[in-house]
Every structure is written in structure tokens, then in C-alpha cells.
Design brief:
It is a single chain. The chain has helices at about 5-10, 20-35, 35-40, 50-70, 145-150, 170-180, 185-195, 205-210, 215-220, 225-230, 240-250, 265-270, and strands at about 80, 85-90, 105-115, 120-125, 155, 160, 230-235, 260. The protein has about 280 residues and is of the alpha+beta class. It has two domains: about 5-160, 3-Layer(aba) Sandwich (ECO RV Endonuclease, Chain A), CATH 3.40.600; about 165-270, Winged helix-like DNA-binding domain superfamily/Winged helix DNA-binding domain (Arc Repressor Mutant, subunit A). Strands 1, 2, 3, 4, 5 and 6 form a six-stranded mixed β-sheet that branches. The protein has a two-stranded antiparallel ribbon with strand order 7-8. It has twelve helices and eight strands. Helices cover about 40% and strands about 15% of the residues. Helix 6 runs antiparallel to helix 7. It is elongated.
Length: about 280
């Protein structure tokens, strides 16, 4: 492609952590909009989430991408590479709204497909001839023609999976039980771990289940003995021994992560003792 600025920016974006960085930024943006620790929401496609909130993921992503990659804000657009201005655009739909100031400029366009939890980004020069005809919306924003994106957009990475929020794995009856009003935190957390064995439960998921309550992490730690009585070993990444035990089962836990291992599985993977008593 005969576009020296585009080629220069492409070289700047040629980094092995690009997809992973966008994954982190997108997940953070979605978590920010859902605000699970206050609202108890965990699915962006839920009827509880207003379409306007869903669309606001893109606005938040602009700042999260800059944070993750340490890209500094630079006028006249969002960022710049070696003096070349670049705009950051994203959508949870099928197209992007390109503002007038970004017409004919370079844009990093990210698409988030919520139904299959994937995302992908392109670098494209948004020539006005490649944008939908007309004046656009009331702010003059116009979408990119599909054919133009396919022909002139440069993929920055392949379709990449987003981490699945474990709470979305609950069936409807299970979710109702875990979020049942009037039930104590410990009772509901015990149900959560029982319903989702051998699944890494992040700290954010526990905060969502216990939304609006005090000290949910202490409540999670308090149910280890009760879980054991029900045949489940709870492992928390906060403790070294638990992290090692989880790794023996094939799970890598962060400091706030949990995983519930049925005791039968735990016994099967425990190596025989090498200590002898005389």
C-alpha cells in the first residue's frame, strides 16, 4: 500500500503483545461499564444493561488502550506514532462512527463481537470516499464502507478470544440461587463454587456476587471448611501452598483468584508421600 505514514505506524504496531494488550484493555472497559461490585451485573448483553452503556465501552477503551500500552494522548487526534496522528475507534456493533476531524486520517479500529467473545483491530486510512455517503449523523460522524475496510484495512492481529466471565457459565436457575436476595454472602458463595467446580473464579466475580456487601473476600475465605465438608477443596491464589496445589491441577491462580477442586480429583493428583516413619 502506497501510504508512507500508514507503513510507519504499522512498524510501530508490530509488537508480539498487541492482541494481548487489547484483550486486557477491552476486558477492563467491559468491567468498568458493568460495575459489577456495585450493580451485580456480569453480562454486557443482559437486558439490565442499557444500549447506551454498551456503546460506552468504546469510549472507555480509548483510555484503557493508552494505559495498557503507555501511549500518550496527543492532539489533534488521540495518539501519535513518530509524529503521525492516529485516532482510536472501537465498536460493539458492525461499524465505527468516524468523526469529521478523523476523516482522511489513520485510525485503529477495534471491533468487539460480544456474542462470541472475540475482538480484532485494523489500521485504516479513513478517506472520505471510503466512508458512507451523506452528511452522517448530527455530529457529522460516518461509518466505513464494508468493501473499503476489507480492501484497504490492514488487520493488526487475528480474531482473538476474550476471557469469559465465569458467572456467565451459570444456568439461569443457578444464577438465581447465587444472586438470591436475602441470602447471606457465604451461602451464595458456597453455591457459586459448587456450581462451577474446576473453574477459575476471579476476584471481580466474587465482588459481583457480593455486590454492595462488606468484605466479600473475607467471606470467601471463611467458607473453606464448609466447602471441605461438602467434598470440595477451595484454593486461593493469595497463599503459596494453594497456588502450588492449583498448578498441580493445571490452574494458574492470580492473587485474587479461586478454584474449587472436588476432593476426589484432589486426591488423585496428590503425589505419594516420600516420608517414612520408623
Amino acid at each position: 500500500m502506497d501510504d508512507a505514514e500508514l507503513q510507519l505506524v504499522l512498524r510501530e504496531l508490530d509488537r508480539p503483545d498487541l492482541a494481548a494488550g487489547f484483550t486486557e484493555a477491552i476486558r477492563s472497559s467491559i468491567d468498568y461499564v458493568l460495575d459489577g461490585s456495585r450493580t451485580g451485573r456480569f453480562n454486557l448483553l443482559s437486558e439490565e444493561v442499557h444500549p447506551g452503556e454498551r456503546a460506552s465501552v468504546g469510549a472507555k477503551l480509548e483510555y484503557e488502550v493508552q494505559r495498557v500500552f503507555r501511549w500518550k494522548k496527543a492532539k489533534p487526534l488521540d495518539i501519535e506514532f513518530s509524529g503521525v496522528p492516529v485516532d482510536l475507534k472501537s465498536t460493539v456493533g458492525d461499524n465505527w462512527a468516524i468523526p469529521t476531524e478523523a476523516h482522511c486520517q489513520l485510525c485503529i479500529c477495534t471491533q468487539i463481537r460480544l456474542k462470541d467473545n472475540t475482538h480484532r483491530s485494523w489500521l485504516i486510512r479513513t478517506h472520505t470516499s471510503w466512508l458512507y455517503r451523506g452528511k452522517g449523523n448530527k455530529d457529522g460522524k460516518r461509518g466505513i464502507a464494508v468493501d473499503a475496510r476489507h480492501q484497504w484495512g490492514v488487520p493488526l492481529y487475528d480474531w482473538t478470544k476474550l476471557p469469559i466471565n465465569p458467572l456467565t457459565l451459570l444456568t439461569k436457575p443457578q444464577a438465581e440461587a447465587v444472586f438470591e436476595l436475602g441470602r447471606g454472602q457465604e451461602v451464595r458463595l458456597l453455591k457459586l463454587f459448587t456450581y462451577l467446580p474446576e473453574t477459575v473464579i476471579e476476584r471481580s466475580a466474587i465482588l459481583t456476587v457480593c455486590a454492595g456487601n462488606q468484605d466479600p473476600m473475607r467471606r470467601a475465605r471463611a467458607i473453606k471448611d464448609r466447602a471441605a465438608e461438602q467434598g470440595v477443596t477451595l484454593l486461593c491464589g493469595k497463599w503459596i501452598d494453594d497456588r502450588i496445589a492449583a498448578e498441580n491441577h493445571g490452574y494458574k491462580l492470580g492473587p485474587g483468584d479461586w478454584v474449587a477442586i472436588p476432593m476426589k480429583s484432589a486426591c488423585e493428583s496428590t503425589p505419594p508421600s516420600t516420608e517414612f516413619l520408623f
